[in-house]
Amino acid sequence: xxxxxxxxxxxxxxxxxxxxxxxxxxxxxxNMSSRKVLWGLPLLAYLVFCFWYxxxxxxxxxxxxxxxxxxxxxxxxxxxxxxxxxxxxxxxxGRQFLMLNxxxxxxxxxxxxxxxxxxxxxxxxxxxxxxxxPELFKRASHPIYFGQAVFTAMDVSGIExxxxxxxxxxxxxxSRRDMLEIVSNPAFGERHHxxxxxxxxxxxxxxxxxxxxxxPRLLLALILLCVVALIDIxxxxxxxxLGSE
Length: 245
What we know:
CATH class of the largest domain: Alpha Beta
Order of helices and strands: HHHHEHEEHHEH
Number of strands: 4
Radius of gyration: 25 Å
């Protein structure tokens, strides 16, 4: 992929360099070169973004799985949790996934080491997310939805105590590798107790999308296409209209 982007860059450089052939001069040729730059530079930026935003390393391999398991065992994870996470890693598809979180905040959180006395659940959660957000963003992972519950659960079956929730959130992860690198970091364990204290209960589970119309790659492509097309019409459409008069 990096070779492809380099090739596109070189081609764009050829487009913008001055042409020494005197026969290829004039407004028409200049307009053609300018339009290539107008469309080419956003295309290059889009390709770079997609390369960063998309998992290009494939599925987790056995060596990576063993390394992550060893790191989490060293951090104090119990064997039952490690066994479940190992199954999750071994089933890796290499695709992005979403983490759905149902959240019920603790109205009277306990005193927590490392926090000021009397901190609210939101303040404790912010302490936890201070670590999470930078780790998420640098791995092209991020929240895509937050919402407050407006009523109790409309339909509950086979689950006790699941009628009341405060909010829900969806987080996008570029890959299972990225998520496991975050949770295996010792700094994650140092702040995870803030999250536990902030919550009365929570349910979080991963989803692989079959329909995801808000994927930033799709949205960015549509936005760039519209913006560049409007600029093209404003600049070169007007010149063609003036030239035909």
